[in-house]
Amino acid sequence: MIAEVGLAALWLAAALALLQLVLAFAGLKGGKPELLGAVRPAAVTQGILTAIAFAALITLFMRSDMSVLLVVTNSHSMKPWLYKFAGTWGNHEGSMLLWVTVMGVAGAAVALFERALKRDAHMATLGGQAAISLGFYAFLLFSSNPFARIAQPPADGQGLNPLLQDPGLAFHPPTLYLGYVGLSVAFSFAIGALLTRQVDAAFARAMRPWVLAAWVLLTLGITAGSYWAYYELGWGGWWFWDPVENASLMPWLAATALLHSVTVLATRDALRAWTIMLAVVAFSMSMVGTFLVRSGILTSVHAFAVDPQRGSFILALLALYIGGALALFGWRIGSVREGAPFELVSRETMLVVNNLLLTVILGLVLIGTLYPLMTEAFGHKVSVGAPYFDRIAGPIALALMVAMAAGPLTRWRKDRAGVVGKRLLVPIAIAFVVSISLSLFAWARIGILPFLGLVIAVAVGVASLAPLWKRKLLRTPLFTYGMVVAHLGCAVSLAGMACDSAFTVEKLVAARPGDMIQTAGWSIRFRQITPIAGDNWTALQADMDAGRGGRSVVIRPQSRFFASPPTTTSEAALLTRWDGQLYVVLGEEVEGGRWQLRIWWKPFVTLIWLGGIMIALGGALALVGRERRGWLMKWRAHNMTTEGVEA
Amino acid sequence: MRKLLIWLPLALFLAFVGLFATGLFKPDDRVIHSRLVGQPLPAFTLPAAASDRPALASAQFVTGKPRLLNIFASWCVPCAAEAPQLMALKQAGVEIDAIAIRDARPDVDAFLQRYGNPYARIGLDARSAVQMALGSSGVPETFVIDGKGRIAYQHIGDIRADDVPMILDRLKDAQ
């Protein structure tokens, strides 16, 4: 019964999306403005219906309803409840349902909370959102129905991929999707603005909070995903340039560029066409990413089912929406006036530099990700790996960091290069000191990129605090704090990355129980191997005492065996200290009762994710700061008019 | 110029769609092609792995007639599953030699006793040295060796019943 309720809700939501599109179109173009009144209720109801469908699927998974195909193929009654719950989206159909749910709820939010946009642009935006949703409803209902029943329910399910059986699954995909799909709102805004020819500062101010919110969630989702891969895969790496990771990075790069260009448009009414283009590109990257992941067209560690039929469905959607938006852009953008001009040395220019660098990185990541596909079209098989991305994107990212230090210290409209240089004097001096001391102590050991990374991280960290210099801290607006925290977060994250690649110590040993292992100042005593059992797995666990100087702590890396489906995973033992992490992986037994152990000491590696969280926090502060200012202004205006009436 | 620039994103995007479409509809080549195909067998001399079969050396493949070289092990379950197909090939007149990987003579004897013995000669590769030189990464694998001692084909995994005609064709091609 629950499955049928979910399916019915989904069909109804799809029908409402169609209605919403028709109403908006007829209202705006068909000369029936009275129809527009029904657009917002339709969007809200659609959001509620998708939420009901999603809740129905969660219920089916929680109850382990083995008459539903998706539950049979992806769940097992013995699983802990958290993984039954999170397993809802740990598969193709469930994650696509999450996708349309986020899209529906985001559309409802735009209908309910968007007040700044003019009415016709608002309606066109909601029409755009309905048009995109419609395609994804069709995809779900016609080729990936999550509620399909089976005639002969088996006694139990086939289980969830053990790599996914981790609390990370409960957090990473939903936040990532909220960000990913949240960008659809920016896309719809751009469509609405193009259709109604309203590309101006007011439009940018209306779009900014939606972009910020999506960007914050995307940042959190990527940070969480990176940490999850780091501790779960047991390879000690935090980013693998895997196509699926790139699929989440590319929308983030576009959204970051959009975030900055929308600020230029909101503040100075410049970069109109460019901002619209970025809004289209950001969500297009989300869709391209989904296509790459879901079609199985590229090989990846995120092994999803290879399915050309689904692949061609998404490709058709992609061609329709992205192609349509770009055609609309070409057709309409000519009629958008050029925005306000600005001088060469100005905040606007710095933000254009930021945008260009981000776009170049985006382009390089896109080319690297698709290159195997391009060469395969001509008959060669190649794979593009980390060395390409590190070497190509790394230096540009460092240049971007330098621009980030200078940007906030440059005035809007017009500034003098000498003055900006003077403001940067302290960071430059610090960069100088850091590079000299690094050269003295560690020059021979570290590569050029980590070296530059460390120097730039410290200098940018200092420079990012400079906008607060000599300001009354209590009267500084919250969104300025947001920018400072986010930029500081970039520096912190960069410092973590550079420390990890410059100073990580790796040791691979074959040790017997009783052995003592010394590495990077740590003494690790390997006491014994014990078999243990969990809810749905058994494991061999190594008991070790790790210490450096003082008291030692017990750490327990495991090699876990899951029966359904039969898989072995390694659970690394992580010991976090203020100055880094000890990372121990238990490998296989080798001859003579010895065990392979892989031990890393990673100085300051945790800064990578701390920085990521700071970036997201900065975005959240900026969002709250801007919105609160809007409320305050509205409240004051309201009070003034009521006072005027009383007088 | 500005006109052109405006339509450039759409043009680029359409090129990508074309690329995606070819990638999506071109059947994926999932067969691994050995780099050693066309190369002579690496030189080796192995001791006998079974009590009733002679030892094996690479020179013995230069007979003017194509032969199969089967890589197996007594501890390998798919190898047991493959045994009937090898017997069928033998009955079709194919000469088969074998290399037993990381094995012991009593175990090989027991294995052949139980699943049948289609082999003419069996060499024992106790440390996988020859297996590595052949570019073989697991058991079972089967090589078609032409009459001049060159590798004509490498079959990774067990030979299924429907692979048998294909293997016979490969042997015929290697003549």
From TrEMBL, chain A:
Key word Lyase present: yes
CC terms in the record's Gene Ontology section: plasma membrane
Domain Cytochrome c assembly protein: 89-295
Topology in membrane: Multi-pass membrane protein
Main location: membrane
UniProt keyword terms in alphabetical order: Cell inner membrane, Cell membrane, Cytochrome c-type biogenesis, Lyase, Membrane, Transmembrane, Transmembrane helix
GO MF terms, alphabetically ordered: heme binding; heme transmembrane transporter activity; lyase activity
Pfam families: CcmF_C, Cytochrom_C_asm
Residues in Cytochrome c-type biogenesis protein CcmF C-terminal domain copies: 315-626
Record-annotated membrane-spanning stretches: 48-73, 94-113, 177-197, 209-229, 249-266, 273-293, 313-331, 352-372, 392-412, 424-442, 448-466, 478-498, 604-624
Cell compartments where the protein resides: Cell inner membrane
BP term (GO), one: cytochrome complex assembly
PANTHER family noted in UniProt: CYTOCHROME C ASSEMBLY PROTEIN-RELATED, CYTOCHROME C-TYPE BIOGENESIS PROTEIN CCMF
Family: Belongs to the CcmF/CycK/Ccl1/NrfE/CcsA family.
Function: Required for the biogenesis of c-type cytochromes. Possible subunit of a heme lyase.
Name of the protein this chain belongs to: Heme lyase CcmF/NrfE family subunit
From TrEMBL, chain B:
GO biological process, one term: cytochrome complex assembly
Taxonomy, superkingdom: Bacteria
Keyword terms of this UniProt record: Cytochrome c-type biogenesis, Disulfide bond, Redox-active center
Domain Thioredoxin: 35-175
One Gene Ontology term, aspect cellular component: cell envelope
Entry GO MF terms: disulfide oxidoreductase activity
Localization in the cell: Cell envelope
InterPro entries assigned: Redoxin, Thioredoxin-like_sf, Thioredoxin_CS, Thioredoxin_domain, Thioredoxin_ResA/DsbE_sf
Alphabetized Pfam families for the sequence: Redoxin (PF08534)
Major subcellular site: other
PANTHER family: THIOL:DISULFIDE INTERCHANGE PROTEIN DSBE
Protein name, per record: Redoxin family protein
